[in-house]
Specification:
The structure is a homodimer of 527-residue chains.
Chain A: H1 2-15, H2 18-40, H3 49-67, H4 80-98, H5 101-106, H6 108-133, H7 144-153, H8 160-165, H9 172-198, H10 207-241, H11 248-268, H12 273-286, H13 294-322, H14 326-331, H15 336-368, H16 379-388, H17 394-404, H18 413-444, H19 482-495, H20 498-518
GO molecular function (chains A, B): potassium:proton antiporter activity; sodium:proton antiporter activity
Family (chains A, B): Belongs to the monovalent cation:proton antiporter 1 (CPA1) transporter (TC 2.A.36) family.
Keywords (chains A, B): Antiport, Ion transport, Membrane, Potassium, Potassium transport, Sodium, Sodium transport, Transmembrane, Transmembrane helix, Transport
């Protein structure tokens, strides 16, 4: 009867797409495994969750490779649509939703210089370096556009590893710089990559670089406006319609859908979805989050974090599995010596390209920072920032697949070599550099234990540390010490940089006009 | 510059799948609209969210039909994979997770007789009726297997409308019967449908019916065991690994992934995913839910409800849009009179087919119930149960597409007629019967206001009402009244039906062995 029955409902399995079911089952099971192993290894000094996921992915890849008798090592082909439409939005939205807004906006100019100027510098060095050094190691199959694309591919950083190690409570400024640069870097790399794909190599002129930079600024402005507008619309809808009557499930559904919609709208309007959803997250946590019931607050905070966590783990798992993409390795015909030359050159250029902007730009940031603030980026912090951006991740792989394959398949041996090299560089940087991140951070920033606040929306007004003094005027309106603060605030406004004066005016504007309309705590309770 | 830039990044849009982006954007926007409109109309007497979603879907369909100049009315083709792999699992899991387990298991035999025997009776009446009456209204294009399939298609109920109206706090037993039947009915219909697709019509014998029923029992048992095993495994993992150290994001990710994995594993092993994920939900809320942090509890409870809510709204929206599937209407060549004959016959058979089992089986259930319990299903309740199952929904449409189309497309005019008829019957039953549900329930069950407990896991020990007396022995272990209860319990065990005796033994077993291993509140605090 059992066998009869199996044939009886076999048709149903076909009908729900057997291949999809198998893939999803394996991925869900392996993700669960990653979560458990990651939790068990959490306290371990050398390992972090990215590395765990990559290694588990690698092992699962080997098992599948054997099970399928050498035919394929991964269940899903690396799918740019899956990555850009389903995995990236929750990660970036959560980044915006959980970011300490205070720090982020105070360091806005520094973050932008790292994230935008830095990418342009790193891109130039890597492109020129590859163009010059690849033929020297015996690899000559690429054209000028390919070299420019390589420059952006290897400028897209992946700071997840470092952020797992840095403590937001202990070094808020450093955390904010590394984190903020990571988000802006993602957006800049993707936009620059697309700009390069459109450049007509035959009629290259000196104005092209200026034009690309101008386009980026336009894109940044419009994407930000769209994200802020979507966030404000959500906040307004929640505040107006739900007055006095909460429906937790609807509130959660509405916030999630509007966040996702902002990303999709940006893509539809050909803006940068990454920037849009990031600013949408910031606005939602600043206004909309305060208009919903207590249960909705807890749920949204954790569900966005959990989704982001799953998406990240999924991506690293995938990168691990992808390392064994046997077709690419077969198609690549480059000699072993040349291949190792490519790896060496690329990793060397990544190290140089990043150093070339982190240290000068930090010095510049320190120079423009007024001495009274004591907000200098110390040399130790500069090293951590430099190190934090050495890892390469899923964005690099997605861009490489886009440039050098057609729907994930390539017959060109040179292109296959670039793909395998990208995978190797990503694996090497994540495993080796990632591996050393925790010891490095522990060495440079000795641990000062402070109780964890599990509430990301709680105030981050820990006692000011040596490197990271909180801005005094951020507590404007705190009734207990308003006299002293008022005085400090006036002083600040006289002596400090324009961005800070703008900040004070913004706070007044926010309290007087924005919060009464869009919701949010009065008296500066938030971050 | 703007235009240059637009062409510049046009490629990126192609690369992320422009069509997908457009579809998702529209769906997300329309879902948001549904949520807002649904919330505004919540207090309205005649409307519920299913109807709102169908009507909004219909309007959006008309707009798209005009915008695309009559080419197509829906953005996505009705996709069985989307439905069975992504939309159904969260709905059913949430059903299991939020169900009042006490009531569900007490009414287990009644629910099973409605959900299994009932489907078989309804299926027989509708199949025989269609076979006899369709030729009489001039529709002759179907074979015997098609008629049998129609029997299952129109036996799959959709009780969402009714559950939105019934109050779980006021009439727990009725709610539990309607709800429980809905879940078991879904599973039975899908399994029966697949059994019929495999029957060799040419060699039909009397043993076939017995065999199909036997297969169902085997499937029910194995699916339940798989669901329970997955739930217990999750509870055990959470309890063992997270002792003394909580990580909310990981807990949430693990629970969601394991729930989804149970569904996928069942599909992979060719069992009933619906039943598996339902029992997985029950076990998780009974054990695993008690092993996680307070924040994880709030988050999981709301996120599963919100997901289920979004999936339901999405389905109804889709059904509304699908009504304008212009290709099907064009392919269908049946005369108008015949078409209305088909609608009439089908709706008549649905009414008769359901009455034919609800009233007799209720009487039977009352007969076997001991008089001391006063747990009779009154005639008013029987009418509500009968009415609750008259609506037809997405499962009917999914099964109809599976039987009468090839990947959503058919060239056969008769098959196109069946598809359009199914859509019309689903729309009619949901709109008309659904519309009348609230007034009917209000008329039959006068409202007795009682404060809502927003906690679905709180105890449901409201004061016993006339029809729904709670079982006294469910409070075993309550220290304040244990003497009296012990006596009552002994009496119960002597006089009551075996299923109740089993229940008492189960409680003892649960408290002594299961909870210490898998977690959960002691002293019967849960539902």
């Amino acid at each position: 009867m059992v066998m009869d029955f199996v044939t009886l409902i076999e048709d149903f399995s076909n009908f729900t797409g057997r291949r999809t079911v198998v893939s999803i089952s394996i991925f869900a099971a392996v993700l669960c495994l990653c979560i458990l192993v990651g939790h068990l290894l959490e306290e371990h000094r050398w390992v972090n969750e990215s590395i765990t996921a990559i290694l588990i992915g690698f092992i699962v890849g080997i098992i599948i490779l054997f099970a399928s008798k050498g035919k394929n090592s991964h269940i899903l082909r690396f799918d740019e649509e899956l990555f850009f439409i389903y995995l990236l939005p929750p990660i970036i939205f959560n980044a915006g939703f959980q970011v300490k807004k205070k720090q982020f906006f105070h360091n806005f100019l520094t973050i932008m210089s790292f994230g935008v100027l830095g990418v342009f510098i790193s891109f130039t060095i890597i492109s020129v370096g590859c163009c010059w050094l690849f033929p020297k190691v015996g690899f000559e199959g690429l054209n000028l556009q390919d070299y420019l694309a390589l420059g952006t591919i290897f400028s897209a950083t992946d700071t997840v590893c470092t952020l797992q190690v840095l403590c937001q409570e202990e070094t808020p400024r450093l955390y904010s710089l590394v984190f903020g640069e990571g988000v802006v870097n993602d957006a800049t790399s993707v936009v620059l990559f697309n700009a390069i794909k459109q450049i007509d190599i035959s009629s290259l002129e000196s104005r092209t670089a200026v034009k690309v930079f101008g386009d980026f600024l336009y894109l940044f402005a419009t994407s930000t406006i769209l994200g802020v507008a979507t966030g404000l619309l959500t906040a307004y809808a929640l505040k107006t319609l739900y007055f006095g009557r909460h429906s937790t499930d609807r509130e959660i559904a509405l916030m999630s859908l509007m966040a996702y919609l902002s990303y999709m709208l940006a893509e539809l309007l050909q803006l940068s979805g990454i920037l849009t959803v990031f600013f949408c997250g910031i606005v939602m946590s600043h206004y909309a989050w305060h208009n919903v019931s207590e249960n909705s607050r807890i749920t949204t905070r954790h569900i966005f974090a959990a989704l982001s966590f799953m998406a990240e783990t999924f991506i690293f798992l995938y990168v691990g599995m992808d390392a064994l993409d046997i077709d690419k390795w077969k198609t690549s015909e480059t000699r072993v010596r040349t291949v190792f030359g490519i790896y060496g050159v690329t990793i060397f250029l990544i190290l140089i390209g990043r150093a070339a902007f982190v240290f000068p730009l930090s010095v510049m940031s320190n120079y423009f920072s007024s001495p009274s603030e004591r907000q200098l980026i110390t040399f130790k912090h500069q090293v951590v920032i430099w190190w934090a951006g050495l890892m390469r991740g899923a964005v690099s792989i997605a861009l490489a697949y886009n440039q050098f394959t057609l729907s994930g398949v390539t017959q060109d041996p040179d292109h296959a070599t670039v793909i395998t090299s990208t995978i190797v560089v990503v694996l090497f940087s994540t495993l080796v550099f990632g591996f050393l991140t925790r010891p490095l951070v522990v060495m440079l920033l000795p641990h000062r234990h402070r109780p964890d606040t599990s509430d990301p929306h709680g105030s981050d007004n820990g006692s000011p540390s040596k490197d990271d003094i909180l801005f005094p005027f951020l507590s404007v309106g705190d009734p207990s010490s308003s006299g002293l603060l008022q005085a400090k605030q006036s002083l600040s406004m006289l002596f400090e940089r324009p961005v800070h004066t703008i900040h004070v005016h913004w706070r007044k504007f926010d309290d007087t006009y924005m919060r009464p309309i869009f919701g949010g705590p009065r008296l500066c309770e938030e971050n």
